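Q: What residues go here?
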């Protein structure tokens, strides 16, 4: 069943009816306050829809009439809920605005096309009348990718693609599938699974994000080692642009000049609207083998991952948490509980194995045909042990797998108690991994200390290696800190700037899989160079001469 946005939180994460994972966990609050060096945590509930006001609507009757005439009045909506739910994405930064009711930008209308012709008609209407169009899939962007900015245009319309959700064709011989771009992740997987296939793209936002959004933001799923990042499985598609419909034919490989798919993957709605995509699919895995291991040292664990990748052992997932991340999730989960006999025995066992009090957890997973899984699992475990890993069993890995989409439900309750919870990600070469990790961690810790609301208060940084490649890996950081409530936006900006400066100064990419949006824009030129940015500008001018597509995103 497709998602009805009205069943989801317009100013938070996921289903409105979802259980609050921190409810009744009274001991968790003093524990986390102490961990952050701060006093009792304040109550900071989000404003309800009834308590907020949106900016005045700029679509006058003439513009609205022309839009309704172009695609049908029933596809144009402008209720308070629709405008608020499409005002921003789902980053911590977005939620600071949405929860406090400081909604400085909201679309003047939300349009729900149900065909590529509808999309073309909207783009032509927008170009003719000077109205900004924000392509909107699941709206789960965490980089300001769907902020309802109108730039220099008269008004702003969100183009919600989720009514375009048909699986158009599955080719079981070539192992490709073609689907409309607004299909949600779970619907696409269900349709493929029913025929024995999978795309294998499982971002943490999987249920609430779409095929088009995955490609437009160059996303990465948790099993990207096996199934690839969006730009790898995206084989071709149709892109509606103000200049006409652009078709990129799916080819297994081609030497007919530069590969134009790379202009679409990562284009963030600034070059055109992906209306359908052909993707490379796989047979559903017959067997999964997920296990947990512990390392005494984060970089020893990273070395083991590098070795597994360089030996080309076909794993699906290698996720290595640093000591603080491993400790935090364990300790926060058990806050207020006395250690059991099992806990004490476990601690004694780990220390006897030379792991100390703060080991680093690795979740390693292999999936595919049964015999291939068995071989890969044995090979990978051999390497892990050779690098000093201690097996922690299947249990923790299976629990991680089962709960891997639930983590984000903790963010809203943490924000209800005056806390900041944000994430960022980057990637670099293996030889530079430690420098980048140390640089970003140090910058985050310093910025959170310097912007803390009270003396002695500070933040905590949790890091992990999330995706790995032949030549390097991606690092993912979660940071938690007490918000300085009167200046919480400025505080976040200072922390974000410190971390982004540190990423660039230490040789990382400004984003490995979240994209550029508004939030990473100031750092793009440092990464792409002046010529690179001018190339992007030239493409934008060619495809969108009136500049109506997603103003303020991607193009500095
Ligand atoms: C809790 C949480 C966890 C997340 N975990 C992950 C993760 O594990 N891996 C990961 O890669 N990302 C993750 N993200 C980020 C986000 O889910 C991804 O960027 C995702 O790919 C966005 O998909 P969407 O459909 O929600 O796109 P949207 O947020 O709607 O849009 C993202 C960008 O793409 C553009 N766009 C959307 N659809 C189209 C289209 N059809 N044509 C052209 N442009 C379009 C938008 O204009 C915008 O610039 C997470 C986000 C959250 C909130």
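A:
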């Amino acid at each position: 069943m497709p998602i009805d946005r009205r069943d989801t939180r317009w100013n938070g994460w996921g289903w409105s009816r979802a259980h609050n994972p921190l409810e009744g966990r009274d001991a968790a609050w003093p524990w986390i306050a102490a961990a952050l060096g701060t006093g009792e945590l304040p109550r900071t509930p989000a404003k309800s829809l009834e308590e907020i006001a949106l900016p005045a609507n700029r679509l006058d009757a003439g513009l609205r009439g022309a839009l309704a005439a172009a695609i049908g009045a029933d596809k144009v909506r402008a209720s308070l809920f629709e405008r608020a739910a499409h005002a921003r994405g789902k980053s911590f930064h977005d939620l600071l605005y949405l929860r406090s009711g400081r909604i400085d930008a909201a679309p003047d209308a939300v349009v729900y096309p149900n065909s590529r012709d509808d999309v073309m008609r909207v783009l032509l209407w927008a170009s003719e009348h000077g109205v900004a169009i924000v392509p909107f899939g699941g709206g789960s962007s965490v980089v300001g990718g769907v902020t309802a900015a109108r730039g220099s245009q008269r008004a702003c319309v969100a183009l919600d693609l989720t009514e375009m959700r048909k699986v158009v064709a599955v080719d079981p011989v070539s192992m490709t599938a073609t689907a409309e771009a607004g299909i949600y992740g779970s619907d696409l997987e269900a349709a493929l699974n029913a025929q024995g296939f999978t795309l294998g793209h499982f971002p943490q936002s999987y249920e609430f994000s779409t095929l088009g959004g995955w490609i437009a933001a160059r996303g990465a799923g948790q099993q990207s080692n096996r199934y690839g990042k969006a730009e790898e499985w995206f084989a071709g598609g149709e892109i509606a642009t103000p200049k006409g419909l652009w078709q990129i034919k799916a080819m297994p490989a081609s030497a007919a000049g530069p590969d134009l798919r790379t202009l679409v993957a990562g284009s963030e709605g600034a070059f055109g609207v992906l209306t359908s995509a052909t993707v490379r699919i796989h047979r559903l895995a017959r067997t999964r083998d997920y296990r947990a291991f512990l390392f005494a040292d984060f970089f020893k664990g990273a070395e083991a991952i590098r070795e597994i990748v360089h030996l080309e052992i076909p794993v699906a997932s290698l996720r290595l948490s640093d000591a603080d991340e491993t400790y935090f999730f364990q300790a926060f989960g058990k806050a207020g509980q006395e250690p059991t006999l099992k806990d004490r025995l476990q601690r004694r066992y780990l220390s006897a194995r030379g792991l100390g009090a703060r080991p680093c957890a690795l979740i390693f997973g292999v999936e595919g045909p049964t015999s291939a899984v068995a071989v890969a699992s044995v090979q990978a475990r051999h390497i892990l042990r050779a690098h000093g890993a201690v097996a922690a069993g299947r249990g923790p890995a299976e629990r991680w797998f089962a709960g891997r989409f639930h983590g984000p439900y903790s963010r809203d309750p943490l924000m209800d108690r005056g806390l900041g919870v944000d994430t960022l990600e980057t990637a670099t070469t293996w030889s530079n991994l430690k420098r980048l990790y140390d640089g970003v961690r140090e910058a985050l810790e310093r910025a959170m200390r310097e912007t803390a609301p009270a003396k002695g208060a500070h933040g905590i940084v949790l890091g992990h290696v999330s995706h790995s490649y032949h030549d390097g890996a991606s690092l993912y950081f979660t940071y938690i800190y007490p918000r300085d409530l009167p200046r919480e936006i400025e505080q976040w900006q200072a922390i974000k700037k410190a971390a982004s400066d540190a990423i660039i100064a230490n040789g990382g990419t400004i984003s490995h899989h979240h994209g550029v949006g508004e939030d990473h824009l100031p750092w793009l030129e440092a990464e792409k160079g002046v010529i690179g940015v001018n190339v992007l500008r030239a493409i934008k001018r060619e495809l969108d001469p009136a500049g109506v597509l997603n103003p303020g995103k991607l193009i500095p």
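A: Context that may help when evaluating the design: The longest helix spans residues 524-543. The mean pLDDT is 96.
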